[in-house]
Design a protein that fits this description.
Number of strands: 8
Structural class: alpha/beta
Bound molecules: fe (ii) ion
Shape: globular
Order of helices and strands: HEEHEHHEEEEE
Radius of gyration: 16 Å
Distance between the termini: 30 Å
Strand content: 25-35%
Strand order of the largest sheet: 1-2-3-4-6-5
Length: 163
C-alpha cells in the first residue's frame, strides 16, 4: 500500500521502505521498523548501514521518522516491543547531524533524548494507550496529531487533540 501510494518518493537503495527528502534546511529521512507479523520493531543491519551512509553524506541537520520509538515510554507492555536494535541505532546517530526522531506505535505523547537527539512520540489518530497503564487497553481520549514547525535551526513541535 505504501509503495502504491508513495512509490515515487521512496529510495530504491534498500529493500525496506525508506525516503529522503529536504525541507526548510533539514533532511527528512524515513526508516522502516516494521517486520511482517511482528509487533516489535527492528531496523536490521542493511538499513542501519544505509542510514550511516546517508548521515555521513552531509552536515545538514536531519530529522528521522520511524514507527517504533528507540526509547522506553514507561508502559511495560509497549516497551517490550520497542526497537530491538536500538543500541545499533544509537551508535549510528551519535555524533551525526540527526536532531530529532518522530515516532508512533505507542499511541501516546512522550518526549526524551536518544543518541544526542530529541525523541517525540505522538498520540494516535485512532485510539489511545494511557501512559503508564498497568494493563493493555485503550482509552477514549480523542484522536490527535503532531505539528512540526521548522524555523532555521529550531524544531518546534506540539500535539493537537481533536476534541
Ligand atoms: Fe505499531
Amino acid at each position: 500500500m505504501v509503495r502504491a501510494a508513495f512509490g515515487d518518493r521512496l529510495t530504491t537503495a534498500s529493500s525496506t521502505l525508506n525516503f529522503v527528502d529536504s525541507l526548510a534546511g533539514f533532511r527528512l529521512i524515513g526508516l522502516d521498523t516494521l517486520r511482517p507479523w511482528r509487533v516489535h520493531g527492528r531496523l536490521g543491519k542493511a538499513q542501519l548501514d544505509w542510514l550511516g551512509k546517508e548521515l555521513r553524506r552531509t552536515e545538514t541537520p536531519a530529522i528521522l521518522f520511524m514507527h517504533h520509538p528507540p526509547l522506553r515510554v514507561g508502559t511495560w507492555w509497549l516497551d517490550k516491543d520497542l526497537l530491538r536494535d536500538h543500541e545499533e541505532l544509537r551508535r549510528t546517530v551519535e555524533g551525526s547531524p540527526v536532531r530529532a526522531f518522530f515516532c508512533g506505535h505507542v499511541h501516546q505523547e512522550s518526549g526524551g533524548r536518544f543518541g544526542g537527539a530529541d525523541v517525540w512520540t505522538t498520540p494516535s489518530t485512532a485510539y489511545q494507550f494511557p501512559p503508564h497503564a498497568l494493563l493493555p487497553g485503550s482509552i477514549r481520549t480523542p484522536p490527535a496529531f503532531r505539528v512540526i514547525d521548522l524555523d532555521g535551526e529550531r524544531i518546534d513541535t506540539r500535539v493537537v487533540r481533536l476534541t
